[in-house]
Specification:
The protein is mostly beta strands. The chain contains one helix and ten strands. Strand 9 (98-101) and strand 10 (104-108) form a beta hairpin. The N and C termini lie far apart (32 Å).
Length: 124
């Protein structure tokens, strides 16, 4: 087994690039997580889809391309697609490493550690 093959075992294929066009988001299940997969001007981001405040579905929220954030559609809190932090520093959501290979989107099977000082209330 090559090193690249071992590393890919830690990732799950979720969509083809064609299925997540720029400016759109899709919902995928990765392990025990519902993951929002976002295409912001050709860059793919993956975050825990559940807002920690009222369990809003983040993949349905409005994306601010300039700030690289998504707003919870239920109450408007903004979360960074880059690191999962919330605008007021209250609660963060998990983010996932993403790999795009041969036109396919892969998401890491486990989330990155939450940003230091952030608190996540979702128990998964």
């Amino acid at each position: 087994m090559r090193i690249e093959d071992a590393a890919m075992d830690e990732f799950v294929r979720v969509f083809s690039l064609d299925e997540v066009a720029p400016g759109t988001a899709r919902l995928a299940t990765v392990g025990s997580y519902d993951v929002g997969v976002f295409n912001v001007d050709g860059t793919i981001y993956a975050i825990d889809n559940v807002c920690p405040h009222v369990d809003g579905p983040l993949h349905g929220g409005k994306v601010n391309k300039a700030a690289c954030t998504v707003s919870c559609p239920l109450h408007g809190r903004d979360f960074s697609l880059i690191d999962g932090t919330e605008g007021y520093g209250r609660q963060s959501v998990a983010t996932f490493d993403v790999s795009v290979r041969d036109g396919e989107i892969y998401v890491a099977s486990t989330p990155r550690p939450l940003v230091s000082g952030a608190t996540q209330t979702s128990n998964r």
